[in-house]
Amino acid sequence: MTRAKELMESGAIGRPVLRKPYPTIGSTPPMVTRAWLVDPAIAGGGPLYDIASHRIDLMNYLFGHPMRASGHLSTLIHLIQVEDNAQ
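and the corresponding structure tokens:
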């Protein structure tokens, strides 16, 4: 990430206009091996609560703090007690 930040700051890759962090390739779905993530009594929340802080921190590191932000939560795929979709 440090190299990516250096390239952006030097202008080598142009001006980023859209940023969207994705999970790493090969990550396992929470319903398979990490079932505890979907139980709010144990984990406390869904993807926004449990994972988003890391992605938000990365985006702040690379691009600085946003002037405006919004979030959207939904349960579209799985019948679980926490959201299965967060943006």
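(Above: one complete record from the training split.) DSSP finds three helices and two strands in the chain.
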